C-alpha cells in the first residue's frame, strides 16, 4: 500500500521550510518500518523506490513545482530510473534522504536522491528521468521554467555518469524482449 500518511507527514513536517533554488537539496528523515522490510528483515528494494517519493514530492513543493503543476493542470511522470543499493537498511533504522534536481534537457528533468544511514554510509542512490506532462504529452522543460518564473535559467551540466546512463538507456531496444522464439503458453 502506498504510504499516504507518511507522505502527508513529510509535507506537513516541511511545510515551513524555506523555498529552495531549483537545484537545491532537500533533506528529510525517515524510518524503515516493519511493513517496509522483505524476507531478510531489511528495506525492500521496491519499497525503497516508493520511499524516495517521500523526498521528491516535498522537494517539488519547495522549489515551486507543485504550485506550477496545479496552475497549469500538469502532471509529473517518472520515465526511467537507475538505482544502486550498497548498504542494508534494517527495520527501525533511521535514514536521511537527500533529494535534488541535477539538470534537464529538451524533454526531461533529471533528479538524484540518496539514503544515508546514521553511521554516515550511503545505503542507496538513484538517478531519475522525469517528465512534466500536459494534455498534449510531455511539456518541454523550457515551458516549465516559464511557469516557475525562471525562463532565463540555464541547465546545469550533467555529470558524466548521468550522461553515460542517458546514452546507455537510449540504446536499449523498445519494445523489450520480442516474442521471437518465445515458448507458447501452456493451456
TrEMBL record:
<dbReference type="InterPro" id="IPR051490">
    <property type="entry name" value="THEM6_lcsJ_thioesterase"/>
</dbReference>
<dbReference type="Pfam" id="PF13279">
    <property type="entry name" value="4HBT_2"/>
</dbReference>
<dbReference type="GO" id="GO:0016787">
    <property type="term" value="F:hydrolase activity"/>
</dbReference>
<dbReference type="InterPro" id="IPR029069">
    <property type="entry name" value="HotDog_dom_sf"/>
</dbReference>
<protein>
    <submittedName>
        <fullName>Acyl-CoA thioesterase</fullName>
        <ecNumber>3.1.2.-</ecNumber>
    </submittedName>
</protein>
<keyword id="KW-0378">Hydrolase</keyword>
